[in-house]
Amino acid sequence: xxxxxxxxxxxxxxxxxxxxxxxxxxxxxxxxxxxxxxxxxxxxxxxxxxxxxxxxxxxxxxxxxxxxxxxxxxxxxxxxxxxxxxxxxxxxxxxxxxxxxxxxxxxxxxxxxxxxxxxxxxxxxxxxxxxxxxxxxxxxxxxxxxxxxxxxxxxxxxxxxxxxxxxxxxxxxxxxxxxxxxxxxxxxxxxxxxxxxxxxxxxxxxxxxxxxxxxxxxxxxxxxxxxxxxxxxxxxxxxxxxxxxxxxxxxxxxxxxxxxxxxxxxxxxxxxxxxxxxxxxxxxxxxxxxxxxxxxxxxxxxxxxxxxxxxxxxxxxxxxxxx
Amino acid sequence: xxxxxxxxxxxxxxxxxxxxxxxxxxxxxxxxxxxxxxxxxxxxxxxxxxxxxxxxxxxxxxxxxxxxxxxxxxxxxxxxxxxxxxxxxxxxxxxxxxxxxxxxxxxxxxxxxxxxxxxxxxxxxxxxxxxxxxxxxxxxxxxxxxxxxxxxxxxxxxxxxxxxxxxxxxxxxxxxxxxxxxxxxxxxxxxxxxxxxxxxxxxxxxxxxxxx
Lengths: 323, 212
Known about the structure:
The complex is a heterodimer.
Chain A: E1 22-28, H1 32-43, E2 48-51, E3 64-65, E4 74-75, H2 76-88, E5 94-95, E6 100-105, E7 109-113, E8 118-126, E9 130-132, E10 148-149, H3 152-155, E11 163-167, H4 171-181, E12 186-190, H5 199-206, E13 211-214, E14 217-224, E15 228-235, E16 240-245, E17 248-251, E18 255-257, E19 287-289, H6 301-321
Parallel strand pairs in A: 1-2, 1-8, 2-5, 8-19, 10-17, 11-12, 11-17, 12-13
Antiparallel strand pairs in A: 3-4, 6-7, 7-8, 9-18, 14-15, 15-16
Helix pairs in contact in A: 1-2, 1-6, 4-5
Chain B: H1 6-16, E1 23-29, H2 37-48, E2 54-60, H3 64-68, E3 76-80, E4 86-92, H4 100-110, H5 119-126, E5 132-138, H6 145-158, E6 162-168, H7 173-178, E7 186-189, E8 194-197, H8 202-210
Parallel strand pairs in B: 1-2, 4-6, 5-6
Antiparallel strand pairs in B: 1-3, 3-4, 5-7, 7-8
């Protein structure tokens, strides 16, 4: 058991966003896009605040980050702490544990949160990110928390010397498989098509001797009694159903954008991502989107952060023009 | 070797500054069959040394005092407020890794420096008039777990009918098995009458409790 500390209590000590203030810019989301937007907005002199469920976003669930320039090898959480510490230098108000449930686009923008409170701003940057994509197969809901997991970093230590399945073929899936191979007795990677993870990760995976790989294999059903015991999957090469035994199934098949609360106000694409142009502008003036929630190709930490910067600079330009 | 580096100690010291009342951390250990008791004692000592407002006391599970707090397993930690006031806030297992955050928040809470909730929420919490036991199963590598633990502890702090404990799932494997823990945070109400999975909002805790 690793006792290594992950002190992450900073935001609870920050100033809070106030309901009776008209902000220049309010940012929804506390991942790389939201935090970088806050940094850029503040440095431009904007009165900025962050409303978020949690600081860190999806990166918190990432074991290791090796492709953010300046950090050769850092845990997802470590990287977010670096971001957060830098933001804290600027005394930006942050309210955590709130969920924005509605948005009004009038002369000023209004954000309505889950307890009914309303916050006002001249511009809004949406950086709400995503939630894990589900397989949408029978048994998935039934065995959630009974073998089915969407957070490998949280639950991997519960599978010491047990057999587990990883569903997925991207970087997150292969990263989780590599990490779990040190804990589980056997790791079975099941993916419906071919791998699209980075070669450097696949090379690592292929060197492991307790990993089985099932490509072109679609998961059809998750089965068990009180806990899951196996999956039924279609082997597309032989066109036959196969059973794969495991006590755990870690689902890492990508993410879907959190845009439910804005869909009446802002144009989304067919993946429900917010449509943005090259300046992070949405269909509505004064509302910007950045990070994995926007329809920008390639969901990467560094791209999300960069898009956050663009959104803040665009918001600044908009405010200056209206002065 | 120190378990907490100087930089983290400095951070913790600052976080503890708003503490109001003096508090006590009561650690219950056993000499035998406790793989993590020694580490837990060293760890908690280092955390508690960062504030003069915190008194640290270690007792054996056979001590009368341990029985008074219904301690069944070790290592166990009870957080007590001013004049040893018991709010029903416990940690079973070392609160290291991510749980350092819920441990710190628990200490701030019992010292009277916890975050104030909106009135509507406070009203719902104080209205709960039946005994509620909340177990939050966690792992030390889980970024979403301290949030769930801190909320359970806050409920315990605000209502004497509620007891809340963190349980480190790997340290207490049998108990975890009994409650079918294969994903964390897993929040178990009244010995399994109801369960929640994930770091749920306070509303979800209250909806569950009100439905019991």
